Amino acid sequence: AEEHTDRYNERSRSYTPYAAAMGVIVISDTEHFNKTVDEAKAAGKKCVVDFTATWCGPCKMIKPYFHELAEEHTDVVFLQVDVDECDQLAAQCGISAMPTFQVYMGRDKALEMVGASKDKLLELVKNSKP
To answer: Thioredoxin domain: which residues (predicted)?
Structure first.
């Protein structure tokens, strides 16, 4: 049997490759985020990013809807970032409240909304389509 190793396994993290993703991709660090938004841009897709926290009530309320949107709108890439696990990334993206949803085309932020409004989130997703 041929052994398969890659540089991510050495760091004991397994990244979900963008191409294989179904639904929401959980981002594990800044490198994973950059790689994913770059791959999405190469495929002509924008990324909608949910900056969330496990202790955030409104985040928990909107999470199932975010996942529902990810299943319905496959022409947009959906990412989830835990601000406590990815604090450097959250700081880099200017996150000060949760939930914050940002739209990226590559590494360029295009849109942002703060709060758990289903209507506003749907509008944000619709505005993120190619």
So the answer is: 15-130
